[in-house]
Write the structure tokens for this entry.
Amino acid sequence: MPVPPLYPINPNRDVPWNALPELPIAQELWRTADVLEQLGQAREALGRLHGRSVAIPNQGLLVNSISLQEAKASSAIENIFTTDDELYRAFSETTAEQVEGPAKEVLRYREALWSGYEYLKTEDSFSREYFVRMFREIKQVEEGIRPPFSPTIIRQGGSGFNAGKAIYTPPRGAGILEAKLDNLLAFVNDDQAYPLHPLLKMAIGHFQFEAIHPFRDGNGRTGRIFNIHYLVQKGLLDYPILYLSRYIVEHKDAYYGALAGVSQRGDWPAWLLYMLKAVEVTANLTFDKINRIIASRDAILEVVAAQKRLRRPDQLVQKIFTQPITRVKHLTEDRTYAENTARDYLNKLVELQVLEKQTIRGNHYYINRELYSILED
């Protein structure tokens, strides 16, 4: 009698994969020498980032700048592009609702990243409600899990020979999506029943979420937000600051290829290696950016503190490093300075060549080019 495969694959790309195997996957699919070695390297890099971020007294240096770049990169994976100038100017507004175009989509992702982080502070585990909340915030819709018989098919993009061909058809049918989501949630939430390292669980859970494809649209961004939230909830990060989508957008073909490798060939080791490498590379990248931001902040603080007429120089410098573009209102909204004082101080920083001033349609923007260059590097 033939031995059943360790992981039954999806034999027909244009037929719903209702037989998507439940989690956990067989130990033989992840317990390889290569995967375990890469897991160790990812753990070390993430631990170093975690230790560095905890030691920073002003988390505003991280929560705005790093997460904004994560939002931009994750949106770019879905072919939603904006320039840094457009994005930072948009971010200097009060809410995403004051912004139009691709920058608005990016800011919605960032807002979902942080609202989900706050939401999970009050929850012991992930739930269907969590995924629906993230999806709704990203897409700004009221709908939830897609209808049971919606004809969802993922097709090859572009204009080449295979353009339009089915790549993958996710499960569908009454109660099927809900049942598969519940299995995924049990896997990621129950560490006693499923005692895997959180990095492995994140990678496995991300594939499973993408394979279930529970929403009409926005599944990729929702799944990538889940990656970061899961690492925070498991204590591997204190804040959702891992720049994970940077690696994915730079290795986009490999990302989709590794996803397809699991569904079409059962190649879990290649997928896990990809995701663990992404964690290692982006943890090191984020660690480096944090150090450069702090060094730049300290150097500028020394210059600003030497100007005796500028009161509370530490708060002033903290403000201009909270985001790449500062406006007068950012110094007045929490009553750090009165409006005239705030304007005078920002213009003084322009004279000192700490900031660069731009006026667009009557609005004054003060650009921290040092922070700007660190983030876009």
User: Anything to note?
Assistant: The longest strand covers residues 356-360. The chain has two domains: 27-289, 306-376.
